[in-house]
TrEMBL record:
<feature type="transmembrane region" description="Helical">
    <location>
        <begin position="267"/>
        <end position="290"/>
    </location>
</feature>
<feature type="transmembrane region" description="Helical">
    <location>
        <begin position="209"/>
        <end position="228"/>
    </location>
</feature>
<feature type="transmembrane region" description="Helical">
    <location>
        <begin position="310"/>
        <end position="329"/>
    </location>
</feature>
<keyword id="KW-0812">Transmembrane</keyword>
<protein>
    <submittedName>
        <fullName>Uncharacterized protein</fullName>
    </submittedName>
</protein>
<keyword id="KW-1133">Transmembrane helix</keyword>
<keyword id="KW-0472">Membrane</keyword>
<feature type="transmembrane region" description="Helical">
    <location>
        <begin position="234"/>
        <end position="255"/>
    </location>
</feature>
Length: 347
């Protein structure tokens, strides 16, 4: 699991600040001995990240971490800034390989990039401007968030706001008081794994999935109904034709989404399937119209060779439709909106 750590001790002082550091080091030891990937955004002396790294270093277990930072922060020479990267500290880590990832200018895009890379965001302490905005951004992106209220700060207020997302047992364990016994970090990490399995921040899309599936089935049935009245088309041929067009269109849509760097999930796949089947109906109807115009005769299939030829031709159209589907309807929508606006202005 990819875990993004966020938080700081800037709101703490005295014994509370020291306990924060000890707890972070315990968490670092637990992370070092686990198989989780650690994502950080700072090595500031006030940041949670720094003391987690110290804990990981003390475990003598080789590890690799990702460190996201804004390119606007100095990152050369013996630099140690309140919000930046301490190169001397990084160079002192013998058991940890730090992979730095520079992101644009400013902390907001840096945190968002780190959130997108992560699966779970663990927040301890911190202030509203940094920790608070990061955790709420992660919640919007449906990442699992774990605001630990033990050391106050932004994490405590976020926990109060989101506590209904967790079970009573999880709430109790998240609010456990820190006791220096070497178990706090491991217990917290185990709790993170348990909560992440439930994905409490994810929106339930069951209704959308069922609706997409129902529409897909209805469209497929309609497509078969269009094909089967032709006496030369058997049910098997109808299925083969529809599948060849739909699959080709799905491939085109998937390629387009991949090129657009748009992560595809199951709801998206069903949406693609729905659009693909709809496209297959349109393509088949256009093929029938084209055959009538050019040959004065509807499409007919008399042998397997003609079936394969027609499959290939329609699949090519399906692939093209998948590639341009989104942009076509986008331009159609823009044209329609422009026409309406023009009509309104003319009145």
């Amino acid at each position: 699991m990819k875990i993004l750590l966020i938080g700081s001790l800037r709101h703490l002082s005295g014994p509370e600040a020291e306990n924060f550091k000890k707890a972070a080091r315990e968490l670092g030891v637990a992370l070092a001995n686990s198989k989780h990937q650690v994502i950080l955004c700072s090595t500031s002396p006030s940041a949670l990240d720094r003391y987690v790294l110290e804990g990981m270093e003390s475990s003598d277990t080789p590890n690799t971490v990702q460190l996201y930072f804004p390119l606007s922060v100095p990152n050369s020479g013996s630099t140690s800034t309140e919000d930046g990267i301490d190169n001397d500290f990084i160079d002192s880590l013998a058991n940890i390989i730090v992979h730095p990832v520079g992101v644009g200018n400013g902390w907001r895009p840096t945190h968002v990039r780190a959130i997108r890379e992560s699966e779970l965001v663990l927040a301890i302490g911190g202030k509203e401007r940094g920790t608070g905005s990061t955790v709420y951004s992660a919640e919007v992106l449906e990442k699992t968030v774990m605001p630990i209220p033990t050391f106050g700060g932004a994490a405590q207020s976020i926990f109060a706001d989101l506590r209904r997302r967790y079970t009573e047992k999880e709430q109790s364990e998240m609010g456990d008081r820190y006791i220096e016994n070497g178990k706090w970090g491991q217990n917290l990490l185990d709790l993170c794994v348990t909560v992440h399995k439930r994905r409490p921040m994810a929106i339930n899309r069951t209704r959308d999935l069922l609706l997409n599936l129902a529409v897909s089935i209805a469209l497929l049935a309609g497509f078969f109904a269009l094909l089967l009245p032709d006496p030369t088309t058997t049910p098997v041929q109808a299925i083969l034709l529809s599948l060849s067009i739909a699959i080709a269109t799905m491939v085109g849509s998937a390629v387009r989404e991949t090129m657009a760097d748009s992560p595809t999930r199951w709801p998206s796949y069903l949406s693609i399937a729905t659009r693909s089947i709809l496209a297959s109906i349109v393509i088949y109807l256009l093929a029938q119209v084209g055959s009538l115009v050019l040959n004065n005769d509807p499409l007919s299939i008399t042998d397997s060779t003609e079936l394969k030829t027609l499959q290939i031709k329609l699949a090519v159209f399906g692939l093209a439709a998948g590639l341009v589907w989104e942009s076509f309807f986008s331009k159609l929508g823009e044209w329609a909106k422009g026409s309406v606006d023009s009509a309104i202005r003319s009145e």
